[in-house]
Every structure is written in C-alpha cells, then in structure tokens.
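in:
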C-alpha cells in the first residue's frame, strides 16, 4: 500500500511540474529527453586545417569528427563542418574580373572564354586561378548569364560566398573544389543546348548553377555506406538516408547566413523558397541510390516528350521541369567519361586513389573492403568499361534522345573513351568477343561477375561503391536482369 501511495505522490508531483512549465508536445509529455546538438570536435577542426595546407592534400580522417552533447531544451541547430574563416579576399575596392586575384590573368582569360565548350581543361583553370576554380568558374557563369543584375546580387557578396564555400570543400583526391567547378561548368553547358533554349527561367538557371556548385561541399572522401558502417554522427543525424547529400545542402545553406554572404538577400520570400526547393531536389538526385529511378523517369519522359516546332522541349509543369533539371545535374556529375581522354584519365586516377584510401581504412578497421576500393586487386581499365557500359552510357544515351541532336557529340566522345579503356585491358575471351561485336556467352558473364565485382543491391536501390557512388564501377549483373 505504501509503495502505491508513493507512486501516486510521484505522479502528482510530475503533473504539477509540467503544469508550471506550460503546454508541452505530446511526445514530451510522455517522456522528457534532452535534445541533441552536433558540434565539430577539435580533431575535426585539426583535420580540416590540415586539409587546407599544401603539404597535406587530404584529411587524416575521412569522417567528420563530431560529438553529441546533451543540451536540454536546445535545438539541433549547429551543423557539423561549418568553420569560422577569416576572409581571404585581399582586394580593397573593385572585385577582379574573375572573382580572384591571380598573376596569370591573361592566360586564365583564354580558358574562361571557353566556358561554353564541353571539355574545357578545368585542371588548368585550377592552376591559373591560385587553386580557386570553383570561385572563378561560378562567378564567371553568374556574370555571363547576367544573374547578378537580374537578382541584384552584389559582386563582392557573390565572391564572399563562393570563397567561403570553396574553403569548405575538403581537399580529397576527387570530391574537391575542382570537381565542384567541373560540375558547375558542365551544368552550364547542358543548360545552353538549343533543345532547352528559353525553357527555364532565370531563377531555375540560378538554382541549377547553385546546386552544381554546392553539391559536394564538405565531402569527406568516403561513401554514405562507410559513414553508416562506422556509426558517424552524420549518418545518425540523417537516419542513413542520403547522408552526404543532405549534409552538402545543410552546409551550403548555412553558409548563406555568414556575414556578407547572402547572395539570395534580394529575392522575394516566394523566390527564395522556390529556389531552395529546387536546389534540394537537384542535390538529392546526385545520390547514386536514386540512379535507377531517375533513369527510368527520364526514359518515360523521352517516350512522351513534347517539342515545339523549333525543336525546343515543352515542359509545362513543375514536375517535368524539375525532373529534367535533376537528370541534368546527374549527367553533369557523371560527365567525366565524356570529356577528352586526357582529362578523363586524370579524373580516373583521382577517384581510384580516393577509393583506395577508403579501402585502406576499411582494412584497418577490419571491415569488408568495398568493391573497387582494394588497391591490391582492383583493375582500373575493367572498372571503367563496366562503369560506362552499365551506368554512364545508358544515362547519356537517354539524355541524348531527350535533347536530340544536341548531345550526340558528347555520346560519341563517351563511346570513344570506352573503346580506349577497352583496348588497355589484357586480352581475354570477354574482351575479344566485345571487340568483334559479339555478345558475351553465359560462361563469360559468370566470369565477369566474379572478376569485376560490384554489388548492385537491387534494382530499386542501386548502391554503387564509390564516393557517394558517382565513380567508376561495374555491376555483378546487368541492371535489366535484376
């Protein structure tokens, strides 16, 4: 009886405390839990500082070092990866032509003049811009498309934002500021084809360029699955769903709140909300687990596409427009194999090195090494042929159908690059058959599966073992057989 009375008194005291605090949510009335705030640890800050130095091109740890702090009644408002940086803009008055100061202005100008051309040498732009390719390319594209005037963006504000954004790209071998600049420039080219002439509004164009520029900011150089397997705080925060893509978006939008960085300040509330929604849609589409569904939707659009008499696509509702923009960003993100072979090979070397660093870490942790991440067994040439055959070519072939004939030259370059890598593979029955245009036998398909492994998971959830899986891989089976 005394135990029952004690319990009653305890419940009574709890009710009185809750009444004094005022109304609470239903879940809080059930049980009071401390809210969580994610902060960057000293180890993470050290890692990021090291990553910015020339002597240390990669962070010592691929996982952002965050920790959970019990802070009752405080929201989870601090985003891992955000750093307070001193401004690196040394110009006093006018913003330089390309947004950065460089002693190579004249030579850089020659490359910037060709930003409309597919396959511009982004590595040379990186070199000539004092390693500010993202700032130079994005600033130049905003200028070229007259977006600063249209949306009343101050040049210094744009440079401030692009500089701090670029500083938040970690210098990993592949997913770094140069990759961000490359995807932004590729997005610009794809938006410029005749089939899309005047299809998109200025706001939609700015959203696409913004999405391309931010799409991999603060990328640690490992896959979503690696972050999930290691129990990273990012995976916990985003519930294992498009972990990196959600993080890129959070960092990019948070940086707009830095002093002198809000390039969207002059937009109306509706414009700002619309741009944010589009950018989120596009960046989430860079998660390769969405590849199969994106491709299926694109194929459906090709089958039902409507064009004006001039050949321009007719996209008369938001869903159609954002679907094209999602696939456009996805194509730009998977465009390395369509570039001149000398540039493509540089990207291949970079992504393979990033794979191998992850594989080394997985070996150290005692994890199963992800396919194509084992430097002792991976075959670069075979991976490229498979990556093109099963991932890149189907996507670009469908895109070329959508904007026909505007992307035919890109598709031709892709097929030439595929043949180049095929010719680097040591002779085998499989390669001989493909060289002669024959279909692989069932026996060779089986051999291919064992020697060129890569787990596709299921047709509904393509899990490509690459850094957020945009890189070079081959599936065990053809997607159509899943």
């Amino acid at each position: 009886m005394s135990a029952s009375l004690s319990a009653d008194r305890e419940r009574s005291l709890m009710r009185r405390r809750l009444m004094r605090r005022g109304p609470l949510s239903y879940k809080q009335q059930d049980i009071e839990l401390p809210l969580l705030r994610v902060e960057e640890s000293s180890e993470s800050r050290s890692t990021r500082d090291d990553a910015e130095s020339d002597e240390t091109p990669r962070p010592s740890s691929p996982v952002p070092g965050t920790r959970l702090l019990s802070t009752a009644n405080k929201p989870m408002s601090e985003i891992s990866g955000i750093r307070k940086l001193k401004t690196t803009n040394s110009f006093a008055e006018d913003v330089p032509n390309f947004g950065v100061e460089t002693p190579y202005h004249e030579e850089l100008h020659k490359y910037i003049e060709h930003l409309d051309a597919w396959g511009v040498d982004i590595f040379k732009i990186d070199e000539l811009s004092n390693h500010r390719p993202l700032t130079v390319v994005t600033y130049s594209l905003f200028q070229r498309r007259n977006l600063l005037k249209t949306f009343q963006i101050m040049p210094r504000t744009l440079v401030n934002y692009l500089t701090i954004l670029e500083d938040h790209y970690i210098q990993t071998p592949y997913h770094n500021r140069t990759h961000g600049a490359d995807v932004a420039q590729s997005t610009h080219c794809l938006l410029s084809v005749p089939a899309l002439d005047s299809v998109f509004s200025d706001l939609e164009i700015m959203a696409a360029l913004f999405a391309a520029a931010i799409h991999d900011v603060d990328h640690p150089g490992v896959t979503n699955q690696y972050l999930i397997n290691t129990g990273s705080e990012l995976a916990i925060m985003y519930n294992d769903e498009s972990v990196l893509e959600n993080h890129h978006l959070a960092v990019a939008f948070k940086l707009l709140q830095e002093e002198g960085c809000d390039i969207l300040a002059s937009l109306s509330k509706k414009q700002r909300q619309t741009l944010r929604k589009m950018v989120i849609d596009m960046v989430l589409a860079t998660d390769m687990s969405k590849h199969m569904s994106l491709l299926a939707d694109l194929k459906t659009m090709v089958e039902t596409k409507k064009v004006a008499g001039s050949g321009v696509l007719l996209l008369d509702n938001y869903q159609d427009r954002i679907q094209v923009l999602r696939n456009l960003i996805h194509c730009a993100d998977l465009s390395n194999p369509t570039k001149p072979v000398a540039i493509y090979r540089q990207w291949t070397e970079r992504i393979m090195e990033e794979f191998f660093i992850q594989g080394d870490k997985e070996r150290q942790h005692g994890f199963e090494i992800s396919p194509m991440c084992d430097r002792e067994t991976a075959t670069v040439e075979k991976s490229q042929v498979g990556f093109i055959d099963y991932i890149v070519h189907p996507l670009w072939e469908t895109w070329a159908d959508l904007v026909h004939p505007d992307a035919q030259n890109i598709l031709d370059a892709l097929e030439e690059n595929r043949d180049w890598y095929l010719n680097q593979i040591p002779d085998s029955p499989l390669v001989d058959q493909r060289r002669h245009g024959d279909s692989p036998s069932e026996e060779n398909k089986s051999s291919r599966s064992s020697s060129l492994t890569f787990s596709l998971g299921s047709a509904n959830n393509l899990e490509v073992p690459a850094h957020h899986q945009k890189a070079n891989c081959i599936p065990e089976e053809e997607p159509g057989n899943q």
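note: The first strand starts at residue 36 and ends at 40.
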